[in-house]
Specification:
It is a single chain. With about 260 residues, the chain is α/β, with parallel strands linked by helices. It has 2 domains: about 180 residues, Rossmann fold; about 80 residues, Putative phosphatase, domain 2 (DNA polymerase, domain 1). It is built from 12 helices and 5 strands. The protein has a 5-stranded parallel beta sheet, sandwiched between helices. Strand 3, helix 9 and strand 4 form a beta-alpha-beta unit. Homodimer. It holds the Pfam family Hydrolase. Its EC number is 3.11.1.1. Keywords: Hydrolase, Magnesium, Metal-binding, Schiff base.
Length: about 260
């Protein structure tokens, strides 16, 4: 039986659409005269935020713009300088983006009724998560454990945060754990840890839409976008796709049947 879940935060359990860091990534590059797109800013979502900025700097179009403007490719010192701007900008608004997504609080309650432990991983640092956790708890969501990338050897796609959570929760082996998240890096993290990986579509950074935008979207167009997200998450290793996070316990029931047959992720 599944003994624990490892849940992502922004775009999965809180911050529908994962908007908290998005515009900050765009703005820190704009301050240096480099115009990045929303798609480029979303690409590495789920990684430790400095790693995210580094990944953006390595994108072909962005690195070419940087070289044209500054005469050289972005260096590690440039990444550090961008991150130094990013962090205070994010801290100033982070508390506004901790509202649980629809179905998240209810899901957590159902998991606890089944005695399934709730761990969590993130691309945020511990000081960032101190803000998010406080606000989310006030609105009804608090996992049993949290490990941030600055508390492990490395963030996603490495499995170390999941392993630390498993240790804290006393859960093993890893095929008794489900990892759920909304990004490619979440899926890679889960697969690398040996867990069942479940990708979430609605509310995800991969979909990149607010609740209002989802409601207003033409059904055929929304289906096309959801299918594209499903394809990306599946290609990254997702064993299952949940349209919304509230479906996770239904998927866990299916996984339990497979475990009973001796199957493994």
């Amino acid at each position: 039986m599944i003994k624990a879940v490892m849940l992502d935060w922004a775009g999965t359990m809180v911050d529908y659409g994962c908007f908290a860091p998005l515009h900050v990534f765009v703005d820190v590059f704009a301050r240096r005269g480099i115009e990045v797109t929303v798609e480029e800013a979303r690409g590495p979502m789920g990684m430790l935020k400095r790693d995210h900025i580094q990944a953006m700097c390595r994108m072909e179009r962005i690195s070419a713009l940087w070289e044209s403007k500054f005469g050289s490719l972005p260096s590690e010192a440039d990444v550090d300088a961008l991150y130094a701007d990013f962090e205070p900008m994010l801290f100033s608004t982070l508390h506004e983006y901790a509202t649980p997504v629809p179905g998240a609080v209810e899901l957590a309650a159902r998991l606890r009724e089944q005695e399934i432990k709730i761990g969590s991983t993130t691309g945020y640092t511990r000081p960032m998560m101190d803000i998010v956790c406080k606000s989310a708890a006030a609105q009804g969501y608090a996992p049993d454990s949290l490990v941030t990338p600055d508390e492990a050897a490395a963030g996603r796609p490495y499995p170390w945060m999941i392993y630390r959570n498993a240790e804290l929760l006393g859960v093993y082996p890893m095929h008794h754990i489900v990892k759920a998240g909304d990004t490619v890096s979440d899926m890679l993290e889960g697969v690398n840890a040996g867990c069942w990986a479940v990708g979430v579509v609605l509310g995800s950074s991969e979909l990149g839409m607010s609740e209002a935008e989802v409601e207003a979207c033409e059904p055929e167009e929304l289906d096309r976008r959801k299918a594209a997200v499903t394809e990306r998450l599946t290609a990254a290793g997702a064993h299952y796709i949940a349209e919304s996070i509230g479906e996770l316990d239904r998927i866990i029931a299916v996984i339990n049947e497979r475990l009973a047959r001796g199957e493994r992720p």
